[in-house]
Amino acid sequence: MRRVALATGLAALLALTGCSDDTDTLRPTQTPADGSTAAATSTGERVQVVTSIDVYADLARTIGGDAVEVRSLLASDSGADPHSYEATARDQLAVRNADLVIANGGHYDEFLTRALSAAGGERAVITVVPGEDEGHEDEGHEDEGHEDEGHEDEGHDEAHGHGRDGNEHVWYDLQLMGTLAGRIAEELAQLHPADREGFAARATEFENGIAELRQRQETMFSAHDGTPVAVTEPLPLFLLTDCGLVDKTPPAFSQAIEEGTDVPVRVLQDTLNLFSERAVELLVYNEQTTGPQTERIRKAAEDAGIPVVGMSETLPTGQDFLSWMRANLDAIEQALA
User: Which Pfam families did the record assign (predicted)?
Assistant: First the structure.
């Protein structure tokens, strides 16, 4: 298995390792004599891409175009929790037949990690957030110009495999998604060389879209730097932080909601006080993780006249990644106006 890991916010190729499994009889591995994967698929075949979540499936389709066939193991309407999901036999077959697998990492989609371990054979694997045991060999850092001095300034936390501040919802990090687009294009170019220029052009177009969104974030940062906000869980924090907004939610509250445990009474009251005391100017609410305690928080915000913006963990039906993030920024701007 050849693994490609992205450090949060940086184009870092952390590891390339090879392994083979003679028991992989469903799809024979096609590896050139030089050990590369450039000819893993013939020019007449579509590259088989498997992703853990629909967000990465959208990026793969956007960049791959007609040259790829993409399957997300967790569809947007599945309602399944990635933390507890178990890969089905059909999922396992898809992974075994994949030419490229895109995983979130950071312990978010361990069902895919287990499926990869069981699959055998060879395939390209992009892991967006490397875990503790994923891709920390020194040689991988040197080969790709991985510089240590740039990490402290950016607040990255590779060693713990959770990205910035332990947040595994890295698709809300727009800069990282631009970096990921480039990595997908590079991997697809190796697997399907005939469409190399198309992959590069579509990745550039996507990156230009990201640049426009990042420019909006910079404008919002100038206008709202230091504005206090609250969240029901860490889902949108990359997006909010890069807009200059500061999360004032008690960490024990958002952690409990994310882990599906009860919020301690004192912590719940401290969170409710943020609204009754008007200590925050916005609540960002995860629409896909709701319950009695998050509903109390939402009602407290509404009763205090504090705007509530809903965001989702999966790509909304009928949207692509760029239109989704554009809508999220629109909602934040309107709420703070």
Answer: ZnuA
Q: What is the 3-state secondary structure (H, E, C) of the chain?
A: CEEEECCCCCCCCCCCCCCCCCCCCCCCCCCCCCCCCCCCCCCCCCEEEEEEEHHHHHHHHHHHHHHEEEEEEECCCCCCCCCCCCCCHHHHHHHHCCCEEEEEECCCCHHHHHHHHHHCCCCEEEEEECCCCCCCCHHHHHHCCCCHHHHHHHCCCHHHCCCHHHCCCHHHCHHHHHHHHHHHHHHHHHHCHHHHHHHHHHHHHHHHHHHHHHHHHHHHHHHHCCCEEEECCCCCHHHHHCCCCEECCCHHHHHHHHHCCCCCHHHHHHHHHHHHCCCCCCEEEECCCCCHHHHHHHHHHHHCCCCEEEECCCCCCCCCHHHHHHHHHHHHHHHHC
Helix (H, G, I), strand (E, B) or coil at 48: strand
Closest CA to 102 of 19, 35, 32, 186: 186
Per-residue pLDDT tens for 170-203? 999 999 999 999 999 999 999 999 999 999 999 9
pTM: 0.79
CA distance 56 to 187: 14
- Per the listing, tokens 């504090």 go with 306
Per-residue pLDDT, 76: 54
Q: How many CA atoms lie within 13 A of 200 on its CB side?
A: 7
